[in-house]
Specification:
The chain has one helix at residues 30-49, and strands at 14-18, 21-25. With 50 residues, it is of the alpha+beta class. It is elongated, with a radius of gyration of 18 Å.
Length: 50
Amino acid sequence: MPHSKDQTDAPPRFELRLGGLHLTVQHIPSWLVALVTTAGGAALTWWTQH
């Protein structure tokens, strides 16, 4: 029987290692992507207007 890969075997989406800090993100929530995109667009619009 073939071995099926579940989500715990998947590599992390984002991994950050800085000295003693080790941050691993397995799944990036869609609401976070939407929030960052909206904030970036608003900041860019404000910056180009000034």
